[in-house]
Amino acid sequence: MQTIKRCKWISNVVDVQYLKYHDTEWGQPMHDDVKLFESICLEGQSCGLSWLTILKKREDYRKAFHNFDPEKISKMTEKDIDILMKHPALIKNRPKLNSVVDNSKVFQKMKESNESFSKYLWSFVNHKTIHNNDSNRITTSPQSDAMAASLKKKGFKFIGTTTCYAFMQHAGMCNDHCSDCHYNPLKSSSTTSNVTTTKSLDISITNVEVKMIDEAQENLENDIDEDVSSSPTIVVKKAPKIKKTKDTPVPKKPVNRKKKATVSKKAK
């Protein structure tokens, strides 16, 4: 049986859900306002964690946040967040949970001003997918820098340039599939008129490093993302003093082994 060729970063992954995400979602152009809103909020939740951690909790987040309906989320209160903080499946980080509500309010303001969320986001790539013609795992770009700065100005939270780039990859604004990946959108496209090609960037990490990073992040899970205020206090104990007894040996001073310089007598 012929093996399906996938991107190098996913080639050693055995998790079925992660593979399905790569095959059917990652890098596929997305234009629905609500889907884009969900994606950008979930990317914010994954800050400090591996994406797989959030992907496995995605359905729980959808139930908790009204299927990411911005209008319904914008009406959520602090009491609602208190309840979500006790949710066993969600990341227990209040600022992150609050950010979804804050972001929904910004979304609603844009909607009331007849501003399309999709057109606004796609404008940062000139409404065309950027095809990075290499297999490097880059994490930021000039476009993600500009998007992050603009979203922050509008009031979005947990939205740095790295988060924006990961979002752009998911939403198909950047196609970072390897050129020989079976699921590269270019392989099934008969035209490249809607694709912008960029030169290779020198920022890269190996597949082994990616796997090590993901494993380390998955092991951290919720612990890495708890509020600093909830971190346990570390108490440093002083070493106990040793009581001297008659039998306690007294350390000797080091002997100076250097010989004194010999002064030679002058010849008479």
From TrEMBL:
Zn(2+) binds at C7, H22, H177, C181. SUPFAM superfamilies: DNA-glycosylase (SSF48150). InterPro entries: Adenine_glyco, DNA-3mA_glycosylase, DNA_glycosylase. Residues 222-268 are annotated as: Disordered. Residues 254-268 have a biased composition (Basic residues). It holds the Pfam family Adenine_glyco. GO terms for molecular function: DNA-3-methyladenine glycosylase activity; metal ion binding. GO terms for biological process: base-excision repair. Signal peptide: none annotated. Keywords: Metal-binding, Zinc. This is DNA-3-methyladenine glycosylase I.
